[in-house]
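Input.
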Amino acid sequence: MAWLAAALQGYHAAHGEYPPTVVRSSTGEPLYSGLMLTIPYVSTVPGSRFNDQEPWSSLGNRTLVTDLNHQTWCANDIWSRANGFSSYVYLQPPKQTDADRGSLQPKHVILFECPRWDHVWAEPVEFQPADLARITPGHDPHGLGIRFSDGTFSRLPLTEVRRLVAAQLEQAKETRTHP
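Output.
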């Protein structure tokens, strides 16, 4: 999770915002998770092998994802290791307006462990309110790992992770409805 969080912060520093949750082709077809756009912001990762014109599951990109998995294992989830992929969910925080800049912003969830989640971190998935029930407790008695937009990390109980994610999904929905 540390590698993904550092990559997200690097992307944010370079672009002034976080990547989209899903990157789509010119025809609107989902290609890959916005997390794939963060690869060049971590120097130890061979980002030049990523082809941004192909889906995450294309042969070359899938090889890169497999190579990166050892750096992104969800330590709280033995199941993900057995099945060969990591169980993290990325949520794009709300975009800041010019009026927001410089003011104290609430911290938003950007990344959290999701044990037994059946999607690869590179796969284009938009987490929905119906998915909240799929967040399960991990093996760490201190809770699930969660990264916030201010760079902080916490381990929180399952109920608190679900509450924070639900609130952020609701806020995103309201933002889309009332821009």
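The chain has four helices and six strands.
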